[in-house]
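User: My collaborator and I are trying to settle a disagreement about how two of our proteins should look. Neither of us wants to argue from intuition anymore, so we agreed to look at predicted structures for both before our next call. Could you fold the first one, then the second, and keep them clearly separated?

Assistant: That sounds like a sensible way to settle it. I'll keep them separate. The first protein:
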Amino acid sequence: MAKRNSKTAAQQCRYYEVDNIFVYMVETYINGNFETFRRLYHELNKDARRDFMDFLLSKEFLHLSYERQSLADVGGNLSFFF
């Protein structure tokens, strides 16, 4: 596969067929695919990298991570019954 450099977030969304490349990158990192995350980050252009950092610090991301944690707590509590 050829190297992909200096791509916008929109280009990455189309290439990887995802709605939001930033959410995809975070989920990749959470799943433990650190090399894939690193590659995705380095494929972004400078402005997209800044936008990604803004996304990480945004309320949307904090809300997303809170929902994920809430679901994990519920799942953990449900496993008690099974």
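The second protein, kept apart from the first:
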Amino acid sequence: MKSVFPAIAALLMAALPGIPRAQPAPPPYDSFVIQSQRLQEARTINVYRPPADAAVAHPVLYMPDGGVA
């Protein structure tokens, strides 16, 4: 019986809605809109650039379509 209690407790905790957590603010970014000829719609592009005083080289990640919600 003692081994059943932790399993039931774990199932109940998984089934209950979690406590809403505040989402971290997105980093500063530039945003601009381009008109897609192929899609016949405007697309919002968000670009994050590290601070100009950053002396460290940063890796680059290219995303074909994505954004900040």
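Some points you might bring to the call about the second protein. The mean pLDDT is 74. The chain is about 15% helix and 20% strand.
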